[in-house]
Write a structure and sequence with these properties.
Blueprint lengths: L9 H7 L6 E6 L5 E9 L5 H9 L4 E7 L18 H8 L3 E8 L5 E5 L3 H13 L3 E4 L23 E6 H6 L2 H16 L2
Parallel strand pairs: 2-3, 2-4, 4-7, 5-6
Antiparallel strand pairs: 1-3, 5-7
Helix pairs in contact: 2-6, 4-6
């Protein structure tokens, strides 16, 4: 069972936390139909912003909400079903495909691929496997990204993809391995 969030939505968070001190928002609107997002970036779920930026590269839309506090960044976590930060919502409203990057606990090196876009979800899993990563499809539970109100499923198509990357793998995603991972995800997106 997941812990209860301190804040039910962005407005509640904004009233108590300071932008530029406790959190920051990053948006790169490249006027394309795909958005890669990290709603729990920075120190909330470490490395998810870096991974999302690598997947987006210079061509896909990018959004990151990043915890920048010296400690207790987990208090900035707003569950994906309630995530309503306006810059993110505006960006994904213009995107047909949304790929959300999240962090999952665990020492193993696995990507759990979920979301309502089963065709793209399966293509991402295959592409990651072909690139040498362990990837499994997640169709149920708290990390499957299958609720309609999940931020990954609120783009124009109402069907996105959610990547839950274990801490063990996130810790290793640097340099060439990060490029390899990002290229595998982007390849699946581009061939959809």
């Amino acid at each position: 069972m997941m812990a209860k969030d301190k804040y039910a939505n962005f407005e509640a968070l904004r009233k108590r936390e300071r932008e530029g001190v406790d959190f920051r928002r990053c948006v790169r609107d490249r006027n394309v139909s795909v958005a890669v997002i990290a709603p729990h970036g920075g120190h909330i779920e470490p490395k998810t912003s870096k991974i999302a930026a690598a997947i987006a590269g210079e061509t896909l839309n990018l959004y990151c909400f990043e915890g920048t506090k010296s400690n207790d960044n987990e208090t900035l976590h707003i569950t994906s079903n309630n995530f309503d930060e306006p810059l993110c919502v505006d960006l994904i409203a213009k995107s047909d495909v949304v790929v959300a990057v999240h962090g999952l606990g665990g020492k193993g090196e696995t990507v759990h691929v979920g979301g309502l876009n089963s065709e793209l979800r399966d293509a991402v899993r295959r592409s990651l496997e072909q690139a040498g990563f362990r990837a499994v499809v997640d169709k149920s539970g708290d990390h499957a990204g299958i609720r309609r109100d999940n931020i990954c499923n609120r783009g124009r198509s109402k069907q996105g993809v959610q990547l839950e990357i274990t801490k063990g793998l996130r810790d290793r995603l640097n340099g060439n391995l990060l490029i390899q991972f990002a290229d595998a995800v982007r390849k699946a997106i581009e061939t959809r």
